[in-house]
């Protein structure tokens, strides 16, 4: 079985994601209660060419990534009330567990496999590294969505560097900003 540099298998679950009311408080709680860190924060993320339910999306979110062992944890805080996969129809946040992230080296085939099961992509975008992401409604088959993450060399390098920052982390510099050129 091939694995990424951070230890998770190709075409398997690499991430668990949660929607939080406040990103700073969420990161602090996960660090205080579970010892997870450091956190890597990407501000005002929307992705390139984002689509929600097939239409252009303008929602923005701050997202934070950290590792618990080899599993990446993502915390998400939507900054506005725009329609998105993070809000209900009444615009309230869908707090708590949100999705399992699958790092796939064959995005097109994985997307086709999920769609053949009747799962529809509710959100699609291109991330700054150029890889694609798509969030699928699992229609109750799982307790959350599946987010397909196109795994390329840039993604592996970035996530692996986050993983190694967590190994023997001493609590210094608990929040680190991700700068996108």
TrEMBL record:
<protein>
    <submittedName>
        <fullName>Glyoxalase</fullName>
    </submittedName>
</protein>
<dbReference type="Pfam" id="PF13669">
    <property type="entry name" value="Glyoxalase_4"/>
</dbReference>
<dbReference type="InterPro" id="IPR029068">
    <property type="entry name" value="Glyas_Bleomycin-R_OHBP_Dase"/>
</dbReference>
